[in-house]
Amino acid sequence: TYNADIAGWPELNHISTIGAFVLGLGGLVWIYTMWKSLRSGEKAPDNPWGGYTLEWLTSSPPKAHNFDVVLPQEFPSERPLYDWAKKGVELKPEDPSHIHLPNSSFWPFYSAATLFAFFVSVAALPVPNAWMWVFLALFVYGLIRWALEDEYSHPVEHHTLSGKSNAWMGMAWFIVSEVGLFAILIAGYLYLRLTGAAVPPEERPALWLALLNTFFLVSSSFTVHFAHHDLRRGRFSPFRFGLLFTIILGVLFFLVQSYEFYHFHHASSWQENLWTATFFTIVGLHGLHVVIGGFGLILAYLQVLRGKITQHHHGTLEAASMYWHLVDAVWLVIVTIFYVW
């Protein structure tokens, strides 16, 4: 990287090279020492140095929840272990139900990896292709296994400041983002339609099919609502029937819309008509949400069959039903602006 005749540089480079070899030898000594200590000798306790700061109270390596004991409310100094021992404070074991950490699971990583592989196959290969269906099937399998495994090894009581469950809060914020997504797309369509840029073709999707689908979707919103209420009242047979009937109505909606898309695609090309392009974009995106929401309801139903959803633990159903109501509300707007107008 430089000329060898520069004064002093070769000597400095030679010294640096020697130093690099010394560092390498030191690293080898460290690796040997670590290997030796792992294979022989007495295992060190959690606090081998008799430290008094808080980090020495946990195990080595630390557990995911850090401490197995209930910590006192008072910390007199930066050496709480010394202060508590001096005052005779007894550290009581922590109640496992107060530890709100789920069990370790392989399926979140598996699901993320297969979903990533699915998108790579969509982006890198001609669509459709065999690999995208393989990875999509593997992704669905991972979600099912994830939904059916136990989150906690012991009963856990969740307490929130809002009085709402974590599933409700998470889905509520997600719905806010979904409302923003559809609002932007619908606003763009209204601008194109009002300015005359997006003119509907002569042969539009049949209104009676849209009204039939509206009946299916609105009815399913009522059935999932009453099913959820039956679960809260402990009426499990009506609850299971109502949830299953909701899934059937969602499947009927999807089949009717698939039939509609197939025929309208042959009647009007989205590449030649802007109204058709916006129709397939917005209505197709809503259809994708129906598939996702329906799959969420199926996961909830599988959890019901396994006994995971109970009268007091029904987070999956709560989130899935909220999402389904969103799908229903968006559909009413779509029917108005694409089929009626």
Automatic annotation (TrEMBL):
Location in or out of the cell: Membrane
Gene3D superfamilies per record: 1.10.287.70, Cytochrome c oxidase, subunit III, four-helix bundle (1.20.120.80), Cytochrome c oxidase-like, subunit I domain (1.20.210.10)
Keyword terms of this UniProt record: Membrane, Translocase, Transmembrane, Transmembrane helix
Domain of life: Bacteria
Domain Heme-copper oxidase subunit III family profile: 95-341
Bilayer topology annotation: Multi-pass membrane protein
Keyword Transmembrane helix: yes
Entry annotated with the keyword Transmembrane: yes
TM spans (from-to): 12-33, 106-124, 130-148, 168-191, 206-227, 239-259, 279-302, 323-340
GO biological process, one term: aerobic electron transport chain
Similarity annotation: Belongs to the cytochrome c oxidase subunit 3 family.
Protein name in UniProt: cytochrome-c oxidase
Lineage: Bacteria, Thermotogati, Deinococcota, Deinococci, Thermales
